[in-house]
Amino acid sequence: MTPAAASGPVADFDEETSAELVNASWADATDERSRELLSGLVSHLHAFVKETEPTHEEWERALRFLTDVGQKCDDTRQEFILLSDVLGVSMLVDAINNRKPQGATESTVLGPFHLVDSPARTLGADIALDHVGEPCVVAGTVRSIDGTPVPGALVDVWQANGDGFYDVQQPGVQPELNLRGLFTTDDEGRYWFRSVVPRHYPIPQDGPVAALLRATGRHPYRPAHIHFIGGARGHQPVTTHLFLDGSPYLDSDAVFGVKRSLVTPVREVRDAGRAAAFGVEAPFRLIEFDLVLTPDTSAS
Ligand code: BEZ
Ligand code: FE
Whose Cα sits closest to atom 9 in ligand 1? Predict the structure, then answer.
């Protein structure tokens, strides 16, 4: 009597076949990109597990950590993005999706403190409603990559105060919409506003991501910076920061966001004429930061 044909999978699940068997299970997924992403994830994940050979306790600890990250998330807190930030994945995805020509303003992470509805402010406005920090003027020109100034461009800015806190971190202490503004460039593509020099600050300290940094001896700080989103008709928007030259942590940003082209000095200006043009008194601190946008070739 011939034995009945063996039923079951084509091969047993073992260390050799694991990724292949799991990836075969996506065969009926109709979306090709989903299949590519899932197969790549499984291949790399299985290779990682085989290379590092975690114990059951280590596997449980990793899942506990991811559970804690998920449970820390709510409508206003996104601990998974913070995890992506400190692992350098946010900056890597940003780099892949923002390949720009030489001379264009480089991009960096958005961060968790942006508000979709920035308050529209007039050029020259003082955005430091609490006046915590050294007063300064921030000014620049929005240009296209060929050097042409861009009138009517939008410049969305937000920053921490001189103590290193955003308004949303200190409700009831800082005025609402402190240190935020949406500006429109003038006929010569210029923007300017008054503010305070921000301080370096740590990423949110009350969650599992900060605990991971503590457990591994990593500091949690970001160097002092001002966030910008620059946008104009016919151009790709850029999400970026200016980083203050001389700030601590420029060489070890907890989220790997610093690019050398974005490091900008705070200069002391003694010229009374320039001071008057900005509505301040000499001497004053000036941070100059131009935004150079790339034309959007995909727009018709
Ligand atoms: C920020 O600059 O606002 C930021 C970016 C990434 C993580 C935490 C804060
Ligand atoms: Fe920030």
Answer: 111
